[in-house]
Amino acid sequence: MASTKLANIVAHCNRTLKPESFEDWPGAVNGLQVDNDGSVSRIAAAVDATLNTVKKVIDVGADLLIVHHGLFWGATHPWTGNRYKLLRMLLDNKIAVYSSHLPLDAHPKLGNNAQLCKALGIKTPRPFFSERGQEIGLRGTLDLSRIQLAKRLAKATGAKPTVLPGGGARCRKIGVVTGGAGAEMKTAVDEGVDTFITGEGPHWTFALAEDLGLNVFYGGHYATETFGVKALCEHLSKKFKLPWTFIDHPTGL
C-alpha cells in the first residue's frame, strides 16, 4: 500500500489553512495534536475526535484522523477511564490526529461555510461575521421563501433545520456561520443580513430573533460542520494520492 510522510501532509495543511493567523478558542490547538510513526497510508475525516470515532477509524484502517473538534477542549487530564482508552487506541494503532477549528470554518474554498454556501447555491459569497478579530463566516444573496430555504438546507445537510421565523417571509440577504453561533445573531443583523444560518443556539434566541426581525435557521452543529473535513480530506487525497473515508458519528445536536 502506498504511503506518504505525515510531515508532508501536516506542512501542506498548515500552508493551506494558516492556523497561525487565527486567534481561536482556548484549547482548540489547531494543527497536529497527536503524532504517529511518521507515515500515512489512509486518511479519515470526522467532525469530532472521540473514543467511538477513533474505534471507527481503526475499523477502516486509517492512520491519520482529520477533525474539526480536536482532543483538548477544556480540562483534558487526568488521562483515566475513557480518556485513557482513547489515548491508548491512538498510540497502539499509530493514528495521528490533525485538528482545524476556526481556520477550517473560514477557508474560502475548503471551509465549512464556503462548502455550505456552495451547497445552498449562494454564488460569490463575501466574508462576514467578525469573531475574535477575523471574519469567519460568509454572506451572499438568494431569493427564497423560508420554506424553500429550509428544504434546501435540509437537502444540503441531511438534517431538518429548526426555523426561527423572526423576519420577513422571503430570505434574500443570507449570512452563514456553521456551528454554534446562535447566541451571536445580533452580529449578523449588524452586518446587514435578513437571514442567518448557523448550527445551534440557546432557547432565548427565539425571542431575540423576533426582536431583531431576523430569520434564523439552525441546521445542527454537527450537520453544518461535516463539510470542511470532507473537503479537506478530498483535497489531500488528490494531492497525495491516498484513500480517505468520512467517519460519520452524528450527535443529533
Question: How would you sum up this structure, described in words?
Answer:
- The protein is α/β, with parallel strands linked by helices and 253 residues long.
- The chain has 2 domains: 4-101 and 226-246, 3-Layer(aba) Sandwich (Udp-n-acetylmuramoylalanyl-d-glutamate--2,6- Diaminopimelate Ligase, Chain: A, domain 1); 106-224, Udp-n-acetylmuramoylalanyl-d-glutamate--2,6- Diaminopimelate Ligase, Chain: A, domain 1, CATH 3.40.1390.30.
- 36% of the residues lie in helices and 25% in strands.
- The strands form 3 sheets. Strands 7-8-10-11-12-9 form a 6-stranded mixed beta sheet. The protein has a 5-stranded mixed beta sheet with strand order 2-6-5-4-13, with helices on both faces. Strands 1-3 form a two-stranded antiparallel sheet.
- It is elongated, with a radius of gyration of 19 Å.
- The mean pLDDT is 96.
